[in-house]
Amino acid sequence: MIPLAIPDIGTLEGEYLQACVKENFVSTVGRFVTRFEDEIAALSGTQNAAATGSGTQALHLALHALGVSHGDLVILPSFTFIASANAISHCGAAPWLMDVDEKTWTLDPGAVAEALANETERSGEDLLHKPTGRRIAAIMPVYTLGTVANMDALGEIAREYGLHLVADAAAAVGATYGGRPIGGLADLTAYSFNGNKTITCGGGGAVVGPDATLVQRVKHLSSTARVTRDYDHDEVGFNYRMTNIEAAVGCAQLQRLRSFLDAKRRIRERYDTAFADVAGVRSFPQPAAGESAYWFSGLVVESDLLPGVAELCAGLYEHGIEARPFWKPTHLQLPYREAPREVLAVTDTLWSRIITLPCSSALSENEQDHVIEVLKRLLTAVHT
């Protein structure tokens, strides 16, 4: 079976894990945690990072540190993995779901600006959502497939309305925007290092940002808000720290990040080229500004005359190839069916037509050729 997306683990990861065992630092303290935070911060163009146990924890901490709390609303694209909305819910808040831009699949600034102009009002220092009376606390763009959202436009909107900006960059490690790293584009930015991401720690996440005090607060909250070695705690905190073992794997992966990103880009380009002449399908979007991390690759099946995504996935599986649909939008998920939402025309049209194809950084050209050959046969077969 050619898998969809799996880690690329080598000998260096093993060496670093052995160092953890030899030094007897396997929990949330150790030199690899400090090193990983320093290197993620540098990669992000900041000097500040807090490593966490998962990407969801990173998002939750970022929102909590910025004061998102019970009853608030956070603007979120419906076209995202459910963890984005769950992090908002963990704060006692709710997502206000909006559409994505058709060209980038990221949060549409025009939709956000229109909704804020038409459906909000000021009450003292708070911006309220008129239909529900709830305070709007933040905007959370999602860097879909590792492509950065239009952060210039979203930043202007956030400043105009006095809203925090928290970026869900779960799949965007190594991406750039306008020629610069992405860590300073939002108040706080959250990464994930789950097993299917470009680099993995086995799990894990991180929060980065330009404000050292704010990121330090995230780190403080992640460590049960402990202030002394004598078990004094100054607020309700969380046990959200990354382990030294996870960080050791992450440090080794970071040394190979450039080669992973290059491989991901080549894989995307080969799919794009191979299917450019196939009627009824189109490629995944390219970033308007900067360089994507090209996390996943695949196709959009636009024509109803072609097999559907489920049929294509089943056909590929019969030939030893794992392929999957992409995110089912948040507004169609049971926990969020009553969440406030705007018109979701792009999301509703797009989501069920996406098929993701094998894109592990270690995918060989022969394996990719096999995927392309089989999928072309399935797409061009006569169906009655």
What does this structure look like?
This protein has helices at 11-23, 31-43, 55-65, 82-90, 109-119, 151-161, 212-222, 244-255, 257-274, 309-318, 345-350, 365-380; strands spanning 49-52, 73-77, 94-98, 120-123, 126-129, 134-139, 164-168, 176-177, 180-181, 188-192, 205-208, 281-283, 297-301, 324-325, 354-357. Helix content is 37%, strand content 16%. The longest helix is centred in the last third of the chain and has 18 residues, at 257-274. The model has no long low-confidence stretch (mean pLDDT 97). The strands form three sheets. Strands 1, 2, 3, 4, 5, 6, 7, 10 and 11 form a nine-stranded mixed sheet that branches. Strands 12-13-15-14 form a four-stranded antiparallel sheet. The chain has twelve helices and 15 strands. Helix 1 (11-23) packs antiparallel against helix 8, helix 2 (31-43) crosses helix 8 and helix 3 (55-65) crosses helix 4 (82-90). The chain has two domains: 11-255, Aspartate Aminotransferase, domain 2 (3-Layer(aba) Sandwich), CATH 3.40.640.10; 257-380, Aspartate Aminotransferase, domain 1, CATH 3.90.1150. By secondary structure, it is an alpha/beta fold.
Low-pLDDT windows of residues: none
Largest sheet: 9 strands, mixed
| Quaternary organisation | single chain
CATH topology of the largest domain: Aspartate Aminotransferase, domain 2
Task: Please tally the β strands and state the result.
Answer: 15
**Shape field:** globular
Query: CATH-wise, what's the superfamily of the largest domain?
Result: Type I PLP-dependent aspartate aminotransferase-like (Major domain)
Q: Helix and strand string, N-terminal first?
A: HHEHEHEHEEEHEEEEEHHHEEHEHEH
The radius of gyration over CA amounts to 21 Å
N-C termini distance:
29 Å
Helix content: 25-40%
Number of domains: 2
User: Total helix count?
Assistant: 12
The SS-based structural class is: alpha/beta
